[in-house]
Every structure is written in C-alpha cells, then in structure tokens.
Write a structure and sequence with these properties.
heterodimer, A: mainly alpha, 15 helices, B: about 40 residues, mainly alpha, 2 helices
C-alpha cells in the first residue's frame, strides 16, 4: 500500500480506536415493556443505561409534548402549552429545546449534557492506568536494553576530526520543539496525575501554585512547540522520504542488537524516519486538539471526522457501528481532551526512546544536536552514505547506520 | 550548545508573547465562561 495511504489511515485508525465504545455497548438492550409506566422509562431502561447497553432512546427523545394539545387559558390548570415539565426537561436533555440565554459564551445554550461522567471515568480510569503503564513500560524496556546491550560505542578508531551534522538553524528548530515538548509533557502529566500522585505527596497548598504555573506553561509553550514542529518538518521532510536503504536497515534492526553490524544510511536512517513521521503525524494531531482546548467550544473536530470515517466504512468494518456525528460543544471538548491525552502518551513513549538513544544509549549521538559537530568515525559508521555525499570521500569499511537517535 | 540555549530562551519569549498577545487581542480562555462582559442583562 502506498505510504501516503498508510499515513492517512494511521490517524483515522487511532481516532477510531480512541472512540471505540466499550465491548458491552455493542450489545442491544432487549426491548422493554413500558406499558406499566404508560410509556415512560422503566427500571430495565435505567439498568440498561448503567450497564452501558445500547438503548433505543427514541421513546424519550421524541416524547417532547404537543403544543397543539394545549388547553385553553380559560380551562382549569391551563395552559402549559401542551408541554409538561417532563417534556420540557427531555427536550433540554436531548438538545431539542429552543434555548435562549443571557450569557454570550459559545456553549451557553446547552443546559444539560450527560457526557461528563463518562469523560471523567475514562480520564481517571483507563487513561491514567494504561497511559501510566505505557510510560513506565518504556522506561523498563530501555533499562533492560541498556543492561543487555550497554552503550552503543563507536566501533572504529576515532579520528579526532569532526564533521558538521546539523546546522545551527536545524538545531534551533529541534530544541525549540524538544524543549517545549519536555515541559508540555511534564506539566500535562502533572495535570492528569496531580490529584492521585502529587497532592498526596506535597499537599493541596503546595500543589495549587505549582499547577497554576504548570497550566500557564502548558497553554503558552504550545506555540513554541507548534513553531518548532513546523520548522523541523520543513528542514527535514525531504531527507525523510523512504528509500531502498531503509529496508536493509530495518532487516538488520539497524544494528541495534549486535555489535559491528552497520547497514547503510543517508542523512536519516529508517529508525529516524519512523521517529520523524511519528513526530509529524502525532505533533499535528496533538496541536489541532490542543488548539481546540485552548479556544473552548470554538472548533468542531470530531463530528466531521466521525462523519468522514463513517462514510469510509472504517468503524463499521471494525465492528463499532456508525460513530455519533451530532456532537454538541461539550462532547467535542471532552473528546478533544481525551484524544489530546491519548496521543500525548504515545508521543511521550516514542520520544523517551528517542532521548535514550540520542543521549546515554549511543556514544557521540548527542553531539549531533549539541554542538552540531560529530566525530568523523561516528559519521562513517552510522551514516556512511551521508558522509560520502557530504565529503565526496568513501566511508571505509561497511556503511554504518545508527539506531534512531 | 548555543543553538540549544537560544531555542530555550525563544521558547520562553514565545510563551510570554502568546500570553500577552492573546490578552491584548481580547481573547482569554478564562473569560470564555466567566467574564461579566459575556452576560447581557435585558
């Protein structure tokens, strides 16, 4: 499958998985007999909702009263306009009431929205649990890898000479992205885990000013992140187009797991390209969802996205059925926040690996982004084809490629 | 390393500029739901 199609499918797949209903939701609640309640909901309906079963709510959502049936004002107890209090509250509940408010905030006309608990339960449950384990697992894998493989050293004899690997502008863009990302990651984790992990340690009084500063940093450093993302994308996109050397690199695991194995690589090897495209795709996704959080209720991302996914038939093919597309402003915000956090965890896990191999994991790798100058032997071993392109000299010995630092 | 330190400085400057800039153009996320200016009494 062409790479472009794969790149299109990736965010869609991630979107679909993120919004997948719980397995139980796929089951339909059995049709309830509501004759005993005159058509109103029964205990079975309530229990079905609590068990997250799919429930045909039309008996409530379409039971909104009949203004035509209004009693004349001359009659006793008239007139409610044919709409009882229950009818009216159901209309509010299903966003079918014509609401006019004195507040001019964007979502002020939504008076009832029932997605908050589901959002909170997911945020406090699976998001924290699986996200936390993902990061801890990544640290564990890297620790194990370091214990088994150790630091990847330069195999040949060092020359004492250096070659420019990245220009000052390239390094500026990288560090603009990296510096902001690290702070965004730490403050994001503090926001998510503060109540369960930080407050018990330092108390509410100490946590409050810390997290106020963290929130300020998280909101405002995002612009530096987006600028850095744009810069590195422009700088390096041409160097990250896949080529035949990538297959050779991947075939031997980039030489990660054995000494003296160095597949050929140009400026970026296959591992680095995977990191690059992950950063671009996840970076754009996290930026878009972040902007929708920065400007509450101004954007509607998920309704239109779900409509496109439904049209493609992807959710249906995966057994999730059609995704809801008629999303209110609060539902959009809830989904944006969850999506933002899910992408963040995946992003952080990848970048932890990137930081490892670019620092303690490989001798000489940090110099590429530190001073911009790398040892010639390092360049010959890890980016032999690039070294030949830049210097016009042959990189003696086997072409080398570094793991994805 | 100069590029790295410059980038970190730029990150801070961009953050401050974004905060002040958004406030100057009249946008504040906090005001979206709490500002008295958003309420019209009739």
């Amino acid at each position: 499958m062409p790479l472009k199609k794969l790149l299109l499918l990736l965010p869609m797949l991630l979107l679909t998985l993120a919004n997948a209903p719980a397995p139980a939701a796929a089951q339909d609640a059995s049709a309830a007999d509501r004759s005993a309640t005159g058509g109103a909901q029964t205990l079975d309906d309530i229990m079905a909702r609590q068990n997250k079963l799919k429930l045909d709510d039309s008996f409530r959502s379409e039971n909104l009263g009949n203004p035509e049936a209004a009693k004349a004002t001359t009659e006793q107890l008239g007139t409610l306009g044919g709409v009882s209090d229950s009818d009216f509250w159901r209309a509010l509940r299903y966003d079918k009431a014509e609401v006019s408010t004195s507040s001019r905030s964007p979502a002020s006309a939504v008076l009832v929205q029932d997605g908050g608990m589901a959002w909170l339960q997911f945020r406090d449950g699976p998001l924290r649990t699986y996200g936390g384990w993902l990061l801890l697992g990544m640290f564990g894998v890297l620790a194990l890898f370091y214990a088994l493989r150790g630091k990847i050293r330069i195999d040949g004899e060092k020359t004492g000479k250096t070659i420019t690997r990245f220009s000052a502008v390239e390094r500026f863009g990288h560090w603009l992205l990296a510096g902001s990302f690290v702070v965004l990651g730490i403050t994001g984790l503090a926001l998510l885990f503060g109540r369960v992990a930080i407050i018990p340690l330092i108390g509410h009084e100490a946590y409050a000013p810390v997290i106020i500063a963290g929130k300020w940093a998280h909101n405002n450093l995002s612009w530096a992140f987006m600028l850095g993302l744009a810069l590195v994308t422009v700088f390096w996109i041409a160097h990250n187009i896949p080529n035949k050397h990538d297959l050779k690199w991947l075939a031997v695991g980039g030489g990660l797991f054995s000494k003296g194995v160095h597949p050929p690589a140009r400026k970026f090897n296959a591992g680095q390209k995977l990191i690059f495209w992950s950063v671009v795709v996840l970076g754009i996704s996290i930026s878009v969802s972040g902007i929708s959080l920065l400007f509450p209720f101004e954007f509607h991302l998920f309704g239109p996205t779900f409509a496109k996914l439904n049209a493609l038939g992807l959710p249906q093919a995966l057994g999730f059925g059609e995704l809801a597309t008629d999303l209110g402003p609060h539902a959009e915000m809830q989904l944006s926040q969850l999506w933002h956090a899910i992408i963040s965890f995946v992003f952080m896990a990848i970048i932890i690996g990137h930081i490892y191999i670019g620092s303690v994991g490989m001798e000489g790798a940090f110099d590429a982004m530190g001073s911009g100058e790398v040892e010639v032997q390092w360049a010959k071993e890890h980016h032999g084809l690039w070294y030949e392109e830049v210097t016009g000299e042959k990189a003696h010995g086997p072409h080398d490629a570094t793991p994805a630092e | 390393m100069k590029s790295m330190y410059l980038a970190f400085l730029a990150t801070i400057l961009i953050a401050v500029a974004a905060d002040v800039g958004l406030d100057q153009i009249g946008y504040s996320a906090a005001e979206q739901t709490s500002s008295a200016g958003n309420v019209r009494l009739e």
